[in-house]
Design goal:
This protein has about 280 residues and is of the alpha+beta class. The protein is built from seven helices and seven strands; from the N terminus they run H-H-H-H-H-H-H-E-E-E-E-E-E-E. A five-stranded antiparallel sheet has the order 6-5-4-1-7, with no helix packed on it. A hairpin with a 2-residue loop joins strand 5 and strand 6. Helix 1 packs across helix 5, helix 2 packs across helix 3 and helix 2 packs parallel to helix 5. The longest helix has about 60 residues. The radius of gyration is 36 Å and the shape is elongated.
């Protein structure tokens, strides 16, 4: 039953994000901001329940308590408050600003991506807890056997005697002695060959005029810059939120960056043609 509830909660969050995107596509920016706040509130209450935090009437207090107890990061806390504030403005002041709606959507998309990872890790941890308890008993029983085996290996190492050392050193000493004898018997031939080689090299240097070569300048190739998305990012045909959406990039996706269009938009290569994305959601490596 718990697994069924978790799946239902996750589906509800995904549906909320899809509805926000649909409302933005319909230019119902006020409705998109309100829906984003409602989806955020549902996520926060799920996290508070998992952390054992009593629900309060204020969404702001729940977010701050989750951050203070290290259940969410500082960046996540800031995104939550951003979505909350934009949603409150839409509810109480009737805000219909397209930029605010897109900001709320992108922040929600990014945090849902983070929430999904935490959700999967939490379920995986539950399944693995029983396996860890079973393996702990096995590891304790193996500990004594490992210790005995280590002691036996150490005892074998101590059995290395002086006789064994001599067997290794005698062949090495014989090789060194043979090398010294050969050097003593043939010193003159080596010196004559060395003198002849030096004379030949000197003669070649006199007859050959060295050519001056200009030092080659090497240009260090500029390191390539990799652009990635920091959130789920819409790809548009025009540098505007009113432009038609031609695709979508997942958070962390590599972007084929072309150039900056202006302070807010960047030109990228997408499916063989140029398109536009919000540059505030790109990062470089």
């Amino acid at each position: 039953m718990a697994a069924s509830n978790s799946n239902t909660n996750w589906e509800k969050i995904q549906q909320g994000v899809k509805e926000v995107e649909k409302l933005i596509g319909q230019k119902d920016y006020n409705g998109a901001m309100v829906k984003a706040r409602q989806t955020l509130e549902f996520m926060v209450k799920l996290q508070a329940a998992r952390a054992g935090i009593a629900e309060t009437s204020e969404l702001k207090n729940l977010i701050d308590t989750l951050y203070q107890n290290h259940w969410i990061s500082k960046a996540t806390c800031e995104h939550y408050h951003k979505i909350r504030i934009i949603g409150n403005k839409a509810v109480h002041e009737g805000d219909t600003n397209a930029y605010n709606a897109n900001q709320s959507y992108h922040a929600l998309s990014q945090e849902v991506y983070t929430f999904a990872n935490d959700y999967k890790n939490a379920r995986r941890g539950t399944r693995q807890s029983s396996a860890r308890r079973q393996s702990s008993a096995k590891s304790s029983s193996k500990g004594a056997a490992t210790t005995r085996s280590r002691k036996r290996r150490q005892a074998k190492g101590l059995s290395f005697t002086v006789y064994d050392l001599l067997k290794l050193l005698i062949p090495i000493l014989c090789i060194i002695l043979l090398f010294v004898v050969v050097k003593l018997v043939k010193p003159d031939s080596d010196s004559k060959e060395t003198t002849a080689n030096v004379a030949a090299e000197t003669q070649v240097e006199k007859e050959t005029v060295p050519e001056e070569t200009a030092p080659q300048e090497t240009e260090e190739a500029a390191p390539s810059v990799v652009y990635r998305t920091t959130a789920v990012l819409n790809v548009r045909s025009e540098p505007s939120t009113d432009g038609s959406r031609v695709g979508q990039l997942e958070a962390g996706a590599t972007v084929d960056y072309v150039e900056a269009y202006d302070d807010d938009w960047a030109v990228i290569q997408y499916n063989g043609s140029e398109a536009y994305v919000a540059s505030s959601y790109l990062t470089t490596e």
